[in-house]
Amino acid sequence: MADTVSNIATRVQWLARDSAFSLTDTTGLQITNYVYRRLAAIIPWAEFNRTDTSASTTANQEAVTWPSVKFIDVTQVEIQDPSDNLNYHEIVPVRTEVEFSELRREQPSFPETYKRSHDGTQNIVQFAPAPDTGSLTVRITGQIEPDEVTAGASTTKFIGYMPDDILAHMIAADICYKRNQGDRAGQLLSVAAELLSSISGKEITPAELKTGGSNASD
Asked: What pLDDT does residue 1 have?
């Protein structure tokens, strides 16, 4: 389990040189969650990798209700294949609308491709050709959006403390940018980028860690 919002706030106050700034009031929690989501989306954290198997096919029907899991990046969609002992086979994303249109006109069989859409009421995933067999489990894997922290006692979902240090640096940098302290903000983002690079094994630049507010004030 990683650190609490209150403890992260202590580091933010020290890094931003502001003992009054709060991360636990309404505004502070919104900012914390905003930067938290931003950090979670930069690299494929193991903590936010999920597999959902709540959806299943209906025979001769192309649309399946998309699960309520808040995926921000879908890395794989699979369906059980009745011709292969119900082992999962990958369904590839649609390449073009023309291709999808052609495939959906074929007779129901095992799907080749999928696309996500909305039917006016709910999010769905459409398969083409339509599956010819019902009750086949659809397995979706990807990166999810983290649940929001709601109080000082809330903890992030990071496995260790270093990601929370990165989060603290990013929040503190955002505060500094908004106060026209660009040099200090740049220093904080440089440290955050160095730490994140060591975790991810790839080069992360300070520019990649800026929030929208930071860019607007830079």
From this structure: 61
